Amino acid sequence: MIDLPPPVELAAETSLQERVRRGLNSFAEAERRVAHALLGEYPMAGLKTVARFARRAQTSGPTILRFASRLGFDSYAAFQDCLRTQTQIRLQRPLMRYPVNEAGAQDYSHIARKLRQNIDGVARNLNAVLPAIVALLSDQDRGILCIGGRFSGLIAAYLHHYLRELRPGVRLVRDSSAAWADDLLEVRPGGIAVVFDFRRYQRDVHDFAKVAAAQGAEIILVTDIWYSPIAAFVTILVPCPVSLAAFIRQRCDRARGGRDRHRRRRGCAGNRRA
Length: 274
Hints:
The protein is α/β, with parallel strands linked by helices. The protein has helices at about 10-25, 30-40, 50-55, 60-70, 75-90, 95, 110-125, 130-135, 155-165, 180-185, 205-215, 245-274, and strands spanning about 145-150, 170, 190-195, 220-225, 235-240. A 5-stranded parallel sheet has the order 2-1-3-4-5.
């Protein structure tokens, strides 16, 4: 597991998840079981009572309390308060998560600035893990599967297109999940699955990655700053700022609203003339 610096634009809801991920190598064995139990059912596992959480992690109550203390909480109640806050944020609609404060719908320089910020953010997050990614993808003894969701599958296809020009053994997992079982038959221990999964995360992509990981594949996950659930069992995680998407969508919604109001006014004027 590779330690990462805090991702750019990392929101409060993911800071605890990130601390747990980064601390995996420093936890004692029993605490590591607690961490894996939490990441595997995040954040709901941590909202259980101490006794139920301990049973879930196959450890003791004092270990649960020690784990919360290692994360910087004075009590288990404070740990759960943090998780509840994060859960409330996760339940918000995606557009509510990415604040868009810029004024002036016609100032398109905001789009260029947001795009630069997103690219810079991805570059900073990628810096820590790029050597490891290159080492994995250039190892021709490892087969590679590229997979994405409904829209992110286009990025997976783009990556597949370039990788197959550089090396053999690269397959694209097509967007029909009915055929994914055939692709999973090709997974071997030490193989690689490059997975793209963004909000709203797809259950079938998650299930594919989980089975591939269980079969011994190394998972490279490219996701947003809120983290796909696949992050619980990845080898390498690349979080991407996505504020530009919400920014553009907000502008589109505003333009659509203006168009609808214009149509209603024209309809009312036509009715008055009639």
